[in-house]
Amino acid sequence: MNMKSADTAGKSKLLQAASKMGAKPFIILFLVLLFLIPLNLVKSLIRDREYYRNEAVESILLPKGGEPVLEGFVTALPYTVTTEKKLSDGSVERTEKIRYMIAVPESWALRADVSPEYLTRGIFEVPVFSCSAVSEGSFAPAAYGYRNVSESDILWDQALLLLGVSNKKNLTSLPVVTANGTDLETALIAPEGVSPFSHTVFYRLPDDAARSGFAFTCDASVQGGGSLSAVPMAADNRFTVTSDWPTPGFSGGWLPTERHVSDGGFSAEWRIAGLSTVFPERWLSDAPHPVSSAESVRAGFVTPVDNYQKTMRSVKYAVLFLLIPFLTIFIFELFTGVRIHPVQYCLIGTADVVFYLLLLSVSEHVPFASTYWISSAAVCLLTLFYAASIFKKVKWGALFAGVQLVSYVFLFGTLQTEDYALLIGSLGLFCIVVLLMILTHKVDWYASSDNPELFR
């Protein structure tokens, strides 16, 4: 009996201590966890709006051929292959097949001048461009001894020059191609299984050009959006891209050897030796080298981080910025003695969640920075009047709105420095913990609820 009495007395003391501490901190923690539900709904809404935006982008880029890739030039030199088959009656059946010898240029110089513009679909603006792509280069004389191909087997009058692109929709007109200064005509027949390109324009070559080598030019008008790419197929490649687009992005298998970027646009130049590519100087058509899987150089016409990405990044810090106002109100309770109902906490938390909805919806029509400060000002004014009302003094409302404003300024700075966002966020959270410890280090958390002197 004595042991039972001691155990009951111990439990009673624990219950009394818990009641003295109060349940408010646990209610605040529960509310923070509860608000994760609407925050996840906001994230889903952001993803939905991104999906609608991407649909609008695709609906504009699809008719323009998407992101153009200039896959290059090759020559296709046909030759006959004779096979003999001995029949049962002792006679010999001879069969002739046409195969092609594929050769890459000795040199290829591409100059692309890109003019971007915006097209609108609903509320979304999509960057697209038109491009003047001028190519110059040369091919060596046909190496008909390659793989023991006899000169007598070559069909010189059927030699072809192939121009490769990722999508023929990218070409707004038929490219004008010359060989040794002579305009080339498109071929009426496009042999199957010869071209290494995704899509090909076939041109007929003069006999003397294929036999002795030739210099070529190509003037093409290209459209598309997102990026412009080129595949370095020649033994010596030199690509130059210029545009008045101020925010380019360079990627692919090679970065520019020279670049100049300013608010007025950019220029970039690549110099690539054929030794660093996957293409041999020549190959036979029965051993294809698909260009679509080869590395390319890429000049991207990048839109700076859009409103959806920035809003999503801001929502990632939402729990912290829910915790700050809740803890601020709780500290105010300790200092003022005014009891705040959990419903009032919920209303303040709802205002913080609505901030992200305002950020998402208004930024679709107004630049993100302006939207951010408009939404921040709206929420701060709302919480100023509400906190002043529940604490019966304007100074507490102003102080609470000030804390909100400082947290929004901190968040905006974090969003602008993506590379240091984790560091800034960690330091900010540490400073908040330090501040809470300083403000509450004299609080007697075991003071009874009827004892107004919480600070010892």
From TrEMBL:
<feature type="transmembrane region" description="Helical">
    <location>
        <begin position="345"/>
        <end position="363"/>
    </location>
</feature>
<dbReference type="InterPro" id="IPR010364">
    <property type="entry name" value="Uncharacterised_IM_CreD"/>
</dbReference>
<keyword id="KW-1133">Transmembrane helix</keyword>
<feature type="transmembrane region" description="Helical">
    <location>
        <begin position="369"/>
        <end position="389"/>
    </location>
</feature>
<dbReference type="GO" id="GO:0005886">
    <property type="term" value="C:plasma membrane"/>
</dbReference>
<feature type="transmembrane region" description="Helical">
    <location>
        <begin position="420"/>
        <end position="439"/>
    </location>
</feature>
<feature type="transmembrane region" description="Helical">
    <location>
        <begin position="317"/>
        <end position="338"/>
    </location>
</feature>
<dbReference type="Pfam" id="PF06123">
    <property type="entry name" value="CreD"/>
</dbReference>
<keyword id="KW-0472">Membrane</keyword>
<keyword id="KW-0812">Transmembrane</keyword>
<feature type="transmembrane region" description="Helical">
    <location>
        <begin position="396"/>
        <end position="414"/>
    </location>
</feature>
<protein>
    <submittedName>
        <fullName>Inner membrane CreD family protein</fullName>
    </submittedName>
</protein>
